[in-house]
Specification:
The chain has 104 residues and is an all-alpha fold. 53% of the residues lie in helices and 0% in strands. The protein contains three helices and no strands. The relative contact order is 0.13.
């Protein structure tokens, strides 16, 4: 069973009078301390996903129409149309999450 590392931060009682006046909440550290595990929670890049989903929707839709008009085998426009629908669904999911106020 692992134990958490010892907390070597100075307590308010260990601070000098200058440090107590200048740093009422303690001396700031170069890096915040997180619980055992090390990293802060991940944040989603919703704006980037929104841009990429919009780009994928436009590109796939345009290429699906062009492939259909160019009379290439029917599988290519169908695959591009399916990808456009997937991009549209992702766009709606991301827009809904952003409207709810999620960060990113």
């Amino acid at each position: 069973m692992s134990t958490s590392p010892s907390d070597d931060r100075r307590t308010p009682d260990d601070l000098t009078e200058y440090e107590r006046d200048q740093f009422p909440r303690g001396i700031p550290e170069s890096q915040p301390r997180y619980p055992e595990g090390g990293a802060d929670t991940a944040r989603s890049a919703l704006t980037l996903r929104l841009v990429l989903a919009t780009f994928g929707l436009v590109i796939c839709a345009v290429f699906a129409v062009l492939a259909f008009l160019a009379e290439v085998p029917l599988v290519f426009p169908i695959v591009l149309a399916v990808l456009a629908v997937i991009a549209l669904v992702d766009l709606m999911v991301v827009a809904r999450r952003k409207l709810r106020g999620e960060p990113g």
